[in-house]
PTS sugar transporter subunit IIB
Amino acid sequence: MKKVYLFCSAGMSTSLLASNMQKVANDHNLPIEVKAFSLPNLQDIYEKEHPDCILLGPQVRFAYEETKKTYNKLNIPVGLIDASDYGSINGERVLKLAIKLMKQGL
């Protein structure tokens, strides 16, 4: 089971997107778990859950470079969710981004 974890300011707005992504994964029988969290909890979540892919919401784009630098060293791909995909809660497109990042590696 691959773990794709989304992070935003509070984890609230991203939870709807995570839910849509999980539905798409389930509909296609993909062994992927999608969850949403708040950015301040990223290190704790990493230590407990060891995600396979980290995606940041557009509202926390300021943290993208630092997050990428930190977690790419740990062989975890980090992506930034497109604002239009985020705004339209397009679970399929964001799930495709996560799968692409995991396939590409770092």
